[in-house]
């Protein structure tokens, strides 16, 4: 904060007042609260080290009171455990009423390396019937993960998007894809209602001596940008044929280029 760098806090715990004080000092800083269910008994199983439901919801109240942008992460949704439509609707109503301005969601991906361990844990807590239903649902492999069927995911994301629109908040997905032959297509292009995934528009920041400041008045939506007012043409990734898999060496190159223009980049 002393350097005016935007901060994103993501937590399943209570945000201390001292942290909210700091977030309030920086216009592009915000907080995300992970909350999977409105039911405390289920929360204790899924997030035993996190705060209880009333405390999580109170985070939204305190953030809103201080004017800090707040995001609710219903992320991930666990099929047959937290995906009941009535329950999800209750959770959405609660987080929006308390102060969330944006919702992010996803459906659980199962890492292949721990799938046996995962299914055993599900069996211990929720029974063999739930395990069998999950095994039938998780037939799609993307990289080292098993994904729920695309039809299931599209249906649940359509429901969440519609409910968020009715509640007057924006919606986006976290790392959700569908297979298109040999390539992957991000589902956010269909379901996201915000400009940026986190719901908060954060411009590119550059360093001016000790402190940082926005390079320009852009919205930070590099994936759709065609006019790189930040001074970094490579980041206009909305242009045809643009590259999107940047490496550390690219950031170093941009730094040198900006320094040559009497600017600097972290």
Give an overview in words.
By secondary structure, the protein is of the alpha/beta class. The protein is built from nine helices and twelve strands. Helix content is 37%, strand content 20%. The chain is globular. The protein folds into two domains: 8-108 and 148-191, Alpha-Beta Horseshoe (pyruvate-formate lyase- activating enzyme), CATH 3.80.30.10; 205-260, no CATH class. The strands form four sheets. The chain has a five-stranded parallel beta sheet with strand order 1-2-3-4-8. The chain has a three-stranded antiparallel beta sheet with strand order 5-7-6, with no helix packed on it.
State the gist of this model.
The protein is built from nine helices and twelve strands.
CATH topology of the largest domain: pyruvate-formate lyase- activating enzyme
> What is the percentage of strand-forming residues?
15-25%
CA gyration radius, whole angstroms: 20 Å
Number of strands: 12
Shape: globular
What's the CATH C level of the largest domain? Alpha Beta
CATH A-level architecture of the largest domain: Alpha-Beta Horseshoe
| Number of continuous helical runs | 9
Summing up helix and strand content along with how strands pair, one would put the structural category as alpha/beta
Low-confidence stretches: none
- In spatial order, strands of the major sheet run 1-2-3-4-8
């Amino acid at each position: 904060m002393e350097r005016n760098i935007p901060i994103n806090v993501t937590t399943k715990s209570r945000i201390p007042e001292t942290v909210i004080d700091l977030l309030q000092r920086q216009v592009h800083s915000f907080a995300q609260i992970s909350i999977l269910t409105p039911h405390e008994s289920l929360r204790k199983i899924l997030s035993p080290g996190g705060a209880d439901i009333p405390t999580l919801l109170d985070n939204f109240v305190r953030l809103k009171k201080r004017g800090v942008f707040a995001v609710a992460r219903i992320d991930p949704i666990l099929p047959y455990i937290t995906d009941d439509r009535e329950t999800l609707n209750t959770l959405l109503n609660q987080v929006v009423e308390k102060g969330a301005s944006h919702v992010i969601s996803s459906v659980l991906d199962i890492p292949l390396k721990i799938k046996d361990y995962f299914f055993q844990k599900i069996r211990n807590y929720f029974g063999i019937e739930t395990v069998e239903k999950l095994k039938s649902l998780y037939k799609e492999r993307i990289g080292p993960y098993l994904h729920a069927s695309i039809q299931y995911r599209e249906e649940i994301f359509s429901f969440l998007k519609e409910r968020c629109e009715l509640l007057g908040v924006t919606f986006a997905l976290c790392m959700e894809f569908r297979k298109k032959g040999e390539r992957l297509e991000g589902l956010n292009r269909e379901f996201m209602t915000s400009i940026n995934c986190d719901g908060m528009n954060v411009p590119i920041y550059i360093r001016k001596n000790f402190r940082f400041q926005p390079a320009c008045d852009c919205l930070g939506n590099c994936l759709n940008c065609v006019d790189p007012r930040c001074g970094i043409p490579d980041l206009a990734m909305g242009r045809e044929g643009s590259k999107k898999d940047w490496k550390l060496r690219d950031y170093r190159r941009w730094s040198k280029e900006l320094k040559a223009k009497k600017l600097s980049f972290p």
